[in-house]
Write a structure and sequence with these properties.
TIM Barrel, Immunoglobulin-like, 2 domains, eight-stranded parallel sheet, five-stranded antiparallel sheet, 21% strand, globular, hydrolase, glycosidase, GH
Amino acid sequence: MKKRICITALLLLNLYLALGQTDYTPSPENLENRAWFQDAKFGLFIHWGVYTTLGDGEWVMQQQKIKTDRYELLPDFFNPQQFNAKAWVKLAKAAGMKYITITTKHHDGFAMYDSKFSDYNIVDDTPYGKDIFRLLEEACKKEGIKLFAYYSQLDWHHPDYYPRGKTGQDLGRPESGNWQDYIRYQNAQIKELAENYDIAGFWFDGYWDQNDLKKAGKPYEDFDLEATYKIIHGVNSGLLIGNNHHLAPIAGEDFQMFEKDLPGKNTAGFSEGSQIGNLPLETCETINHSWGFNLQDGNHKSFSELIQYLIKAAGNNANFLLNVGPMPNGKIQQEHQDLLMQMGSWLQENGESIYDTRGGMFQGADYVSTEKNQTTYLHVLNTDLNTLSIPFAKKRIKTLSWFDDGKPVKYKIKKNVLTIYLNEAHRDAVDTIIKLTLK
Ligand code: FHN
């Protein structure tokens, strides 16, 4: 009997967590900011830290098992003389991006902003000595781009991140520590980011480091997310909070992100527990294969792959947060700049079918649709098709026209199937867009 009660309690707890949002009521300002977020559609993710100097990605400390006392030599090599915050923000804007999310602290524990709670930061501990987060904040304000702070709750450097989670073992830290002291430290940094910088919200990561132990039935520590969220919303109720915990939304969160997958999919393995909630959605992906700068990674995605991912994200009612890993000198690789500019040109011509839209009624192997103002934008992503047949239950079409020149599209409806004739003249190598309105 006792076992059954425990199972019931666990099921109820999971139901409560799955529903999330039970004791959090977003403020009117927060709801307004969520609507802005959903309209924005496209953002720039930036992974940049002292790990960049090694050119082997942002997990180098863990992967090369670099002990903390050796890793602490790295900040002295970080001196990005060619960093230009204005240039980064202008590039994001030219790419058609509406916001930037940058790592203020990644798992290595090094703060890329002027933290008052640790000298292990870019101002106090590098020859560069400038607060790049402040410089980006100022440049974003000038260009009308919003700024989000990525913050890793997982910390491979702080001695009080103890007991360790799934990662960060054998890095030379004492086998002791006070978890609540770490939580107090983490919350103090988060609060100073919320209070001292004009940001639009937080992108949390690293929760899974402890939660994966919990899922394996092993001892784990709890981050007490709702307490942290209450601190943030206590500073500014309008701040948008998202957490890459790979779970369904938790009370206090304002958007839900998916890593390397469209909402509801799990091809990359990060979204096993991420049932789609009722929050604004975002998917994040790398422009090559790495988040942080990796000298060996020349696997840049094609323009077509990237723009089609943006279109599919919008068709799935989600934003696309596209990541670059700037180099140690502060420059974004030319190939990545070129790809971002190409995406910006495409959006200048076709942005009407992406910005301010929501996911549409059509979705299939070769097509998705977006919707706004009673108009459906059908995006056909396969250039080999002469006709496209779509299940179409008894709706009455008012207009069906080519997006590029407004001319009527040839179609027929038979037995609840809409067949569209994709003539050669209008077929586009990346995305053939058709506008549909209903009577
Ligand atoms: O471990 C991190 C990784 O370095 C990167 O920051 C990604 C971005 O979504 N998040 C974690 C992996 O899930």
